[in-house]
Amino acid sequence: MFHNKHRHYRAIFFAMFMVGLLLAYFVFSVVSSPKTYAATSSTLNFQARLETGGGAIAPDGYYNVQFNLYNAATGGTALWTETYGYNGGAPDQRVRVANGYLTVNLGSITAFPSTIPWDQQLYLTMNIGGTSTTASWDGEMSPRLALTAVPYAFNAQSASQLVTTSGSLTSTLSIQAPTVGNQTFQIQDQGAAGTYNLLTAPVGSDGYVKLQAATPTTQQTGGLWVSGTARVDTALQAPLLDTATAGTLSIGTGNATGINIATNAVAHSINIGTGAAAQTISIGSSNTSSATTITGGGSSLKVANGGLSITGNMTTSGTISTTAGGAAGTGTQQLASNLYIQSRGTNLVTNGTGLLGNNYNFSGFTFDPQNVYAGGGSFQNSTYAAGLQNDELIPVDPTHTYQLSLAAESVVYVSGAHAYFGVAPYDIDGLMIQPEYYMKYPGSTDTTLAAPLNPGDTTVTLTNAAGWYNGTANYNSNFAWYGYTNSKGYTYPNYTYTRNDSGDYSSNGSSGAWAAGGISGN
Question: Closest Cα partner for 23 from 47, 46, 41?
Answer without folding.
Answer: 41
